[in-house]
Fold:
Amino acid sequence: MDATLPGATPPARKKNKLHPKEFLLWAFMVSVFMIFAGLTSAVIVRRADGNWLEYVLPSAFWWSTAFVLFSSISLQWSVGKARRDELGQLKMGLATTLLLGTLFLLSQWLAFKQMVGVGLYLVGNPSSSFLYVITGLHGLHMLSAVVVLFVIFAQVFQYKVHSKNMLAIRLGTLYWHFLGVLWIYLYVFFQLVF
Amino acid sequence: MSHSNPSASTAHGHDHGHDHGHHKETFITKYIFSQDHKMIGKQYLLTGMFMAVVAALLSLLFRLQLGWPEDTFPWLESILGDWAKGGRLDPSFYLALVTMHGTIMVFFVLTAGLSGTFSNLLIPLQIGARDMASPFLNMLSYWIFFLSTVIMLLSLFIESGPAAAGWTIYPPLSALPQAMPGSGLGMTLWLISMTLFIASSLMAALNYITTILNLRTPGMTMTRMPLTVWSFFTTAILGVLSFPVLLSAAVLLIFDRSFGTSFYLSEIFIAGETLNRTGGSPILFQHLFWFLGHPEVYIVLMPALGITSEVIATNARKPIFGYRAMVGSLLGISFLSFIVWGHHMFVTGMNPFLGNVFMILTLVIAVPSAVKTFNYLATLWKGNIRFTPGMLFAIGLVSLFISGGLTGIYLGNAALDINLHDTYFVVAHFHLVMGSASLFGMLAGVYHWYPRMFGRMMNEKLGYLHFWLTFAAVYMVFFPMHFMGIDGVPRRYYNFTGFEYMAEWMDLNRFISISAILGSAAQLLFIWNFFSSMRMGKKAPMNPWNSNTLEWTAPVEHLHGNWPGEIPHVHRWPYDYSRPGAVEDFIPQTVKDDDLPEELRKPSVRPVPHHASKEAVASENMLFSRLLQALGLRKA
Amino acid sequence: MKPKRYFFSINRSIGLLLIVLFVGFIPSALNAQQSGQELFANNCASCHKIDQPMVGPALGGIDKRRDEAWLLKWIRNSAAVIASGDQYAVDLYNQYNKTAMPAYDWSDEEIKSVLAYIKEEEKALANKPKAADGGAGAAAANGGGGTTRGESALMILALIVFGALLLFAGRLLSAQYRLRGIRLFNWNTINAGLFIVFLVVGMALVAVQFARLMRHTLPVAASEHGVVLDQMLAITFWITFVVFVITHILLFVYPWIYRRKGSESKALHYAHNDRLEFAWTVVPAIVLTILVLYGTKVWREITQSEPGKDAHEIELFAYQFGWQARLPGIDGVLGRHDYRLIGATNSMGIDPESKEGQDDLLVPEVYLPVGEPVVLRLRARDVIHSAYLPHFRVQMNVVPGMPTQFVFTPTITTEEMREKINNYNFSYVLACNKICGAAHFNMQMKFVVVTRKEYDQWLAKQRTYFKKPETQTASILLP
Structure:
């Protein structure tokens, strides 16, 4: 089995079904997860120390969850279309996903405004500070995923995404799903501790 | 599944690598924004060496203060201005010096400079790959590291001074600009630089792991990888899991500093005013920091240990003793390093039960370290030792690892730590076991792989001299510090004249400072040797050390793609040195079984005189295989 | 009807008044005697010298630079002076890296006595014979062996130049031989031999260090748990030292024995030995387990000892850059504190409304009665500090917002210790052991261990934290 010249992506090896770039993405997702693991551990430790404000989470978070779930569905659907070279539907699917992703970000912003309205600020009790920082960080990653998806969307118009060239859209989808799952983990976590 | 890169258009249908007629390499793409792992390795090395010089100079400044606390040096004032009013270091600046010395050495020299150099240089070459899994990401990781270096150096020159709260930057000291001048802009720049550094390290580590798991040439199973690659592998895994947590600690610190939050701050009255911050815990920062901090010291140490294994085996002409135990101990140390961080926090007032837990786990981690030491000794035993400068430094590393590691046993004991914490005992411990040992690993690596990097040989005699002077200097500087620590002399003290029980160490401080100056001067030998040999060194043969590993099968002149023609396939492990019955005292990994007489074909699982039953041999191999399968490192 | 007899008859009243005045006079006389020198040493010395700048400016000549009224205001509350816009103050603050000087709630007499002390010291320093080229002070104190800075520099330079010359000469020489095809030295053998030399010289130097430096380390532990710790340290030392010596002998002798001796020497291809590996995994594991169990036992004892009801409670308050100590007074309870109450006149933030706080004592030095348990309650004002009392083997971080404590029992009085180590200037001392800013190296407070009787005497003379309007005394301690 030969590896190819640098720059080109080597063929997947028999024993490891994972394309190297896909593996790279998995490892990257592990490190992103570790950031949030560190932050959520900090929440747990701090909460145990007392003086911890608990409150009802802003309703906009429900919308966030809905948006992110549906966006994963629409994206997965789009991947199927790409595999069947149905570019028109692919474009629609991606556009929908992008829309839902943007709505997710907007709903996060709305949630922040709701919190401010209730008097929960970034500055003040650590429990609200943590909520802002953690969701903010997740939102930043989500923004990066939207950008990535946008680039892929543009590539569809350049005929660079099709059944013979699925790597980019698969990676983008993987990253998107990961952030969705991460959001669910965070949301459940928030319910338990705030 | 299609494999081509969607954005680029490389359509190389065949694999014969030859120096590209395909894309012309300009000066910029060959030397500056290179995507070739060998060039990137050299970039990391040069930057790391530069930062080492900077950090050494910083240390000489504060050793000047410690060695001659009552004296004034007018020339200091002309260089440092207000930071050395009247020719004596300002006490705040002293703290800035020790902080920047620590930060630069731990991160920029011994993490990036060590891992960055050798992982980049050796991983593709030793596993038989053309380059890293993502050469672009690799290049990006270097330049982001470079940017982070620039910002960190910039912080040395700002008016309020660089960060000065120790390389461990505990809040509230690091969170409040009014606590010390360095906690203003200097600390902000530090955080920006470190954020970039973390990003760079993550990119690099991800690349290393992916490359090692995906791009090994046929025949290069995980258990045929040289120990260098194993060590870079475990180091990268540690990095991926621990650096993000430092990032989260830093993010929360940034919020406390700039956005008024109280993650780490609570009930503070400072600079004449009561702060409106409640609910935070400074100890939280310490937990998050040391969750990285402890694996970090193994990130610094493990590549050096890997390099030592390789250099000692090659120069003793013997297999590294206990290869499987060496791999096992790397894995064990890696795993355990995540659960011992609390031993840095024994005296913070944390729950004593936690103290017990961390104490037990810390002493457990001493076991794999001991195993490694004994394996090194056994490798030397009955060897046929050739003393290259690299070998000298590798042996020196083992000595420093023993000396520094043993004092870890004192500090890991929470009760003993009560009187030793934050004293010179700790300073002696980590400088021996981490600072000097890793530095020796880096130097051993440079001497050993210089022919691979630059196609020339370094001057041996200068190398010998460099080693003996440095080795002596390191012990002269750090061994006496143990006694100061036992006497209860705290670290990060500007001078000792305020306390009578500390003042008796002033003579020794002078001795230590003089040794440090001489030791630093000795490094000039290395710097001269390094740069002059690039042009004036003897041209290197392809395999100057008669080593078994793959990197020596690639031509001396750098090829983009490493090997002209096909990548060699591997048929054996890398430690077939001095096999009885073999023509030479080494059998490179590429040698096929067909080319060997019968008795040399089977791998030597048992030492030669010992005739074990085939079944016992087979069953033992099974156990190890099963372990690797369980870890997903070998297919079932 | 008999005339009513009041308890406070005229005679009795006059008598009591006399007693009060007399007793009250002594401590205030004593307090006034907390001389300028003591005040300076306990409060100013951490950041100021007379003759040169340190954390703060040199104080020599301060009376010529600023008038007394300004100085009184400044010392009492420097932050206020800066805030008021006083240009000199603002410039000074900026010049010294915006390091804030703490506020001192002292009386006019106290401040004047400090200023007087500074003036005296300035004069004394001016009259001192010029010390030879700096560094002689410390050198003289350490016996004639101290070299001056100039000599050290010359020595270093000479060594480097000499080394370079040797190198150069060596290259010239060997080049001649190389040209003729003669190999001068067998470097392999030389390097191998150097390992033996290094081993011998190294071990000798280690022995020398132990011989000369151990006597400078801490004397016998002055606390109950400290003795146990020192024992554990000794045992750990012997185990690790034996390992250190044996492994180093092997490490440095093997290179000599197994050096390549010529083209015929061969290595033994020996890749592993399960029994041996098992042994050297299990043996260290066992030894370490024993050490760990020992350690956990001692740790448990130290950290989980509950202070008994009769333990002496002392609150240590750490701030940039000094310590304040507070005792609970007769009621045995420390008054409530709140960091929001900290200010120029209430440096520790004790609640003036708190009943228990009224009798709390503020002490400039901490006295401890020998043999009786002590619990240190630790609190920080601004950043993390650490209370380090090495002679007692005591250390505990002092964290703002998170009170910590340490329980121990002192066992050797200051007098006894002075005899033991033959040093009549010795004092127990509290140091800060967590980096906390510019004057981290000079935050100290004296600790004195005395007999119970001396302790009671000392206690009776201490003043309360809250200044009483009539006298500066502690309330009279009734037995």
